[in-house]
Amino acid sequence: MVAANSEDASPSRRSWPAASEALSQPGALRGDAGSGRQDDGGLPWSQGHRAVHPGCHEYCQVAKLFQDSSLGNAVNIVVTRLILLMEDQPTLEINHHAGKSLDSFCKWQKTIQHRSSYGNAIPDNGIAHHDTAVLITRYDICIQKNKPCETLGLAPVGGMCEPERSCSINEDIGLGTAFTIAHEIGHTFGMNHDGMGNACGPRSQETAKLMADHITMKTNPFIWSACSRDYITSFLDSGMGSCLNNIPPKQEFVYPTTAPGQAYDADEQCRFQYGVRSRQCKYAEVCSELWCMSKSNRCITSSIPAAEGTICQTNTIEKGWCYKRVCVAYGTRPEGVDGGWGLWSPWEECSRTCGGGVSSSIRHCDSPRPTIGGKYCLGERKRFRSCNIDECPAGSRDFREIQCSDFDSVPFRGKFYTWKPYRGGGVKPCSLNCLAEGYNFYTERAPAVVDGTPCRDDSLDVCVNGECKHVGCDRILGSDVREDRCRICGGDGNSCVSVEALFNDSLTEGGYEEVVRIPKGSVFIHIQELNISLNYLVLKSKGDQYYINGKLTIDTPRRFDVAGTTFHYRRPTDAPETLEALGPTNMTLIVMVLVREENPGIHYRFNPPLNRDPLTGFAWHYTSWSRCSSLCAGGVQIQQVVCRKQTDHSIVYNHFCDKKSKPKEKKRSCNTEPCSPSWWTGEWSECSRSCNGGLRTREVLCKRRISGTEEKVLDDSACTPLRPSLTEPCSNHSCPPEWLALDWSECTPSCGPGYRHRVVLCKSGESSDTLPESKCPKHGRPTSRVRCNLQRCPPPQWVAGPWGECSAKCGLGQEMRSVQCLAHTSQPSNECLEHQRPAAMQQCKSKCEPSRPISTDSPEECKDVNTVAYCPLVLRFKFCSRPYFRQMCCKTCQGH
Predict the structure, then answer these.
(1) Which string of DSSP letters, residue by residue, matches 466-488?
(2) Looking at beta carbons, which pairs linking 712-719 to residues 24 or more positions away fall under 8 Å?
(3) Where do the segments described as Disordered lie (predicted)?
(4) Which is the most buried residue in 62, 316, 590, 768, by most CB within 10 A?
(5) How far apart are CA 269 and CA 173, in angstroms?
(6) What is the pairing mode between strands 700-705 and 711-714?
(7) Looking at the annotation, which residues are catalytic?
(8) Range(s) for CATH 3.40.390.10 in the chain?
(9) H/E/C letters for each residue in 356-408?
């Protein structure tokens, strides 16, 4: 078998494969295994309505392998569906090349998932969700070429729970395929081969286990190595197997009740693996290595042990059966012992000295240890708690920064760099990604940060075992204590007020305009333009120190550490500009806007601290009249009502004044004269074509606005000569190539199961030229062959030819004809009923000519009549004494 990672795949000799599910600390996590079987010919088993499919024995064996205590984790294999692929799938291509076949299968199995819309329930189409997919194929696969070789399986390492990588391909070798499936599933759990980058296998002089890179007679494929146990434990503890934490749907499969070796004896197991003429070779111990007769009548083995339950015999056991590579007394099976948890270990040292670290404690399933198929312990294997939660002293280095700097003395690709934390997106929050200072690249320096490292800035959540875990505002792991709206841990929200408003004043272009002042101590600050514009949000202090977009210079969107908090400035191309910070701020800040065009409106909200002074008076006041909302046809001016401090008449937040006494704002009309005529343009119509150049149109009118509710349409001559265009080109991009499917052919053959075919072409969108198929999207190609089934073909029947000539030219003889059993295709068949066969021979009679006297004086005239073919028979049966026969066969009968 072979493991494949994101960069390479290493081939190996005959070995096994895998696919499965697992459990993590809180309890047993079940995964669901979907599978498909691709066959190159007939099935190696019969299928009755209630027959037990050999694949069921394989999956039962896989389930047992993952339930073995040597795995160190409770893993439950559940088959959610078994798909038999009897015809080509449009996007699935399986051949001898294991790598390409695996890639195709992984993409195909992702397309039949329904988890997003159906959860783990079975949808209406009956296709249940799976966590990993297993392909069993009868192709003799090979890792690097499209030709048969010794590869048995292939799977992405660590692919479990990744939709396009949780899959494997396995060569069908009969019941022994269970070991291949288990092996390849092990790879998806992050397992490497024993001895590859670890101390297991040959390096430790131990017996090869299930994850060995190839199988020999000494291999024990029924148990896992310590390295395999460490790999899967690390995988599950890191949270990478989270997709398995659900209850799979129930399926009404018929599962075997007997051991596979009882259902299929050694001879049958050989036929599964080497063909219908193979049988067991009575060679070596069958329980440890099954030997079979090859097509060339030689004894061969793939080093796979015979299935459990296979009949065996030893010097001491007259009749036994195989159990985990050993021949034991028939019908006996050692009793298993379920495992039990031992005591918790003492708490380990805290991972940090300040700022919130993590300590752990573990327990083992060893009181007692599970043995002989006993159940593994369920529940929490490792527990964690917070420690050293006090804030670090002022000026302390960032904890993630310290971890990055530890790699300054470690060469990276032959060079040394100064590393700083990378805080951009697109990376796992609990992996250590560091940026090379002075260079424009970052890399992952460690797969997991030290426990207790914050997952993200402005977040209390911390990383534990490479997984982000929730931390309450009290800095306790798993705590539900939260900050209130004032960012007071466990508070009631009464120590601050909420301020939210829309700033939509008309502004003069070309300068800075104040939007709002954010008081010291404010939290949950959010500033956002309503629409995309050419304006820019600006942040400064009361002392005119600019922090963002100041002095007519536009800053790159990023994080800004300002006023004791971090502001996140974002300016995406497809969304409005935003400015956000959690706070609290340690000074008063002023939000400005750099005006380049009309203000689309700016929405702001924040929560300043409640700090009322009862001795200070506040009162409502009217502002000056605003600018007229329109230059003509009637606009509106407004006098707003604001709350002012009585001592200095400064504007303060409205909550300081009495809401009940607030007067209404004032409005008045302005600029009531009609507007000058101007061109009015309607909305553009849809383009006449979606590609290759089209045209769109709009309505253009000369109008004059009389008032806010009245407009008058004028003659075009009343407006300026520069009339806007009525049409414009659109959709000028070239049409993409597309598939064109021609008509279906007739069903071939004309009766019974067959196929209909059609030609599928890749056509250019511009000129309808035929292009190579690689130019069209592969996933959208229409199928070019479908099954069809016309009326039942007529049964084979006897066909008789015309009768031949009579064997006698005179008198009685025999005549013959050909009789054949022919199918409806006129091909020979052996399925005609024998009792309906027409006669191929019958008696015949020819008219005799008048005989001429034969002179006995002329011996030269004594001859056989040349038209008679039976003279030797006349002699043989002693008919020469009869006148007629002696006359017709004169020469033959002469002397007799």
Answers:
(1) TEEE-B-TTS-BT----B-TT--
(2) 714/677, 718/677, 719/677, 719/678, 719/679
(3) 1-48
(4) 62
(5) 9
(6) antiparallel
(7) 184
(8) 51-113+129-253
(9) CEEEEEECCCCCCCCECCCCCCCCCCEEEEEECCCCCCCCCCCHHHHHHHCCC
Residue 71 DSSP label: G
Q: Which amino acid is at 530?
A: L
Q: Where in the chain is the domain with CATH 2.20.100?
A: 618-670, 738-790
DSSP 90-128: TTB--SSBHHHHHHHHHHHHHHT--HHHHTTS--TTS--
3-state secondary structure at position 227: helix
Task: Quote the Cα angle for 531-535-538, to 5°.
Answer: 110
pLDDT tens-digit profile of 398-436? 999 999 999 999 999 989 999 999 988 888 999 999 999
Answer yes or no: is 544 a known binding residue.
Answer: no
Cα–Cα distance, 325 to 290 (Å, whole number): 10
Q: Is 214 labeled as ligand-binding?
A: no
CATH fold of the domain at 51-113+129-253: Collagenase (Catalytic Domain) (3.40.390)
Q: What is the b/e burial string over 77-99, where b = at least 16 CB atoms within 10 angstroms of the residue's CB?
A: bbbbbbbebeeebeebbbebbbb
Overall residue count recorded for the chain in this entry: 896
Residue pLDDT, tens place only, 643-663 = 887 777 788 777 778 788 889
Determine the Cα–Cα distance for residues 842 and 847; give it in Å rounded to an integer: 17
Check the annotation: does 183 bind a ligand.
Answer: yes
∠ CA 527-533-538, nearest 5°, is 40
Instruction: Determine the angle formed by the axes of helices 54-66 and 177-188, rounding to 10 degrees.
Output: 50
Rounded to whole angstroms, the Cα distance separating 453 from 461 reads 9
Is 243 part of any known ligand binding site? yes
d(CA 430, CA 238): 10
**Cβ atoms 591, 562 nearer than 8 A:** no
Q: Are strands 811-816 and 841-846 parallel, antiparallel or unpaired?
A: antiparallel
Beta-carbon contacts of 282 under 8 Å, excluding residues fewer than 6 positions away, are none
Tokens representing 576?
Answer: 């409005």
Does the domain made of 618-670 have the CATH classification 2.20.100? yes
| Strand-by-strand arrangement of the 760-763 sheet | 738-741, 760-763, 770-771
Q: Which of 222, 331, 312 is nearest to 265 (CA)?
A: 312
CB 455 within 8 A of CB 358: no
Condensed to tens digits (0 to 9), the pLDDT of residues 277-336 reads 889 988 778 898 899 988 888 888 888 889 889 999 888 888 899 988 889 888 887 777
* Integer Cα distance of 518 and 583 in angstroms: 11
| Opening angle at CA 628, ends 625 and 630, nearest 5 | 165
CATH 2.60.120.830 intervals, the chain? 499-607
Q: Which fold has domain 738-790?
A: TSP-1 type 1 repeat (2.20.100)
Give the C-alpha separation, 762 to 622, whole Å.
Answer: 72
Please give the distance of CA 368 from its chain centroid, rounded to a whole number: 39
Residue whose C-alpha is closest to residue 755's, from 784, 788, 783: 788
The DSSP element (H or E) to which 267 belongs, if any, is helix 266-274
Q: Is 124 one of the annotated binding-site residues?
A: yes
CB-based contacts of 420: which residues, under 8 Å, 6+ apart?
A: 401, 404, 434, 435, 437
For 333, other C-beta atoms within 10 Å of its C-beta total 15
In this structure, which CATH number among 3.30.830.10, 2.60.120.830, 3.40.1190.20, 3.30.420.10 belongs to the domain 499-607?
2.60.120.830
Q: Which of 174, 175, 195, 192 is nearest to 183 (CA)?
A: 192
Q: Tell me if 187 is assigned to a ligand binding site.
A: yes
Scan for tokens 């006996």, then name that residue.
332
